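Illustration: Transposase.
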Amino acid sequence: MEEQWAPLPTRYAVDKNGRIGRVQERYLGSVYLRPPGGGREWTVPPEELRRPTEAEMRQIRVYITPVQAVDR
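Result:
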């Protein structure tokens, strides 16, 4: 049986336009998302969100993984 998914804070979600975001907050019927790695927040009704696919989760990991500086 698959776990029930909900757009809770700190989880990632995908809106109906395919934008990936980290859930920041739920307030007055809206979900506030911020792109992985930072950027401008946007709001979406919770019924327009879905769980990210495995491919989208790989993309998220690329965005949030720090890159070490190389000394020259």
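Reading the tokens back as a structure: The domain at 12-64 is CATH 2.30.30 (SH3 type barrels.).
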